[in-house]
Amino acid sequence: MLSGLVTALRTLTVLPVPGRECDTFSRSLFWFPVVGLLLGLMEASIGFFSSLTGWNELSAALVLLGGITLSRGMHADGLADLADGFWGGRTREAILRIMKDPNVGSFGAIALFAMMLLKWIALFKLVGLGAFELIAAGVLLARQVQVLLASSLPYARKEGGTAQAFVGGAGAHHSVATSLLTLLFLLPLLHADLSALAVVIAAALAAALLTGALSWRKIGGVTGDVLGAGSEVTELFVWIAAALYAGFKA
């Protein structure tokens, strides 16, 4: 059973983890919320301790850079590839070919700049309000959205690819189990604040629906880049919604 956790940690983080990976990679999807919670708590801790300096601008930047470092920049790379492909290719085949190119084009660079700027603004607000639990919630929900996308849509590349091992065996049972686990983590994390819970879940679902619908229309499924981009979009949506909620509540 723990082999799935090993695979999830090695896939989603840079953390060195001993042990053997699972034979069926889709089994690791059950552990994505656990890894998401771990990463979320680490990023929230970075925000909390750096905010003690009173320099909230720097604190928000460190949270942002910490998230990129802990995930090896994998999800940010997926966002760039998705932007280049979806807006640079006219056909499904061209889109998939562009997304596979390791070079970052104009659309990818613009998407990365916009994403990082908007994330920093939202994090700056959350750090200033001391809403570190909402920072962690965004990271957790971003990994849950990856499971929802992998479980709901087919793999788009006929020739196969890196994420096919995760998407191919994913199904409704992964979505249900990880959704319940995510909810179980969120309740104590948000101090049983049902309004905050509703806000972050609604934002995450909106990100999942937007990413999934766009991916279905463009390439008829998902790839590893789509899953990574979905994670980035979810963090942004949740953090913006959370910042608005926390600011209104304050």
The major pleated sheet works out as: none
Strand segment count? 0
Q: How much strand content do the residues show?
A: under 5%
Low-confidence stretches: none
**Shape summary:** globular
Secondary structure class reads mainly alpha
Run of helices and strands = HHHHHHHHHHH
Helix count, DSSP H or I runs of 4 or more residues: 11
How large, in whole angstroms, is the Cα Rg? 17 Å
Overall number of domains: 1
Work out the helicity level.
Answer: over 70%
N/C terminus separation: 43 Å
Determine the mean pLDDT.
94
What does this structure look like?
This protein is mainly alpha-helical. The protein has one domain. It has helices at residues 2-12, 32-51, 56-70, 74-88, 92-100, 106-129, 132-152, 164-167, 172-189, 194-219, 224-249.
List the helices and strands and how they pair.
Elements: H1 2-12, H2 32-51, H3 56-70, H4 74-88, H5 92-100, H6 106-129, H7 132-152, H8 164-167, H9 172-189, H10 194-219, H11 224-249
Name the descriptors.
11 helices, 250 residues, mainly alpha, single chain
Short description:
The chain is about 75% helix and about 0% strand.
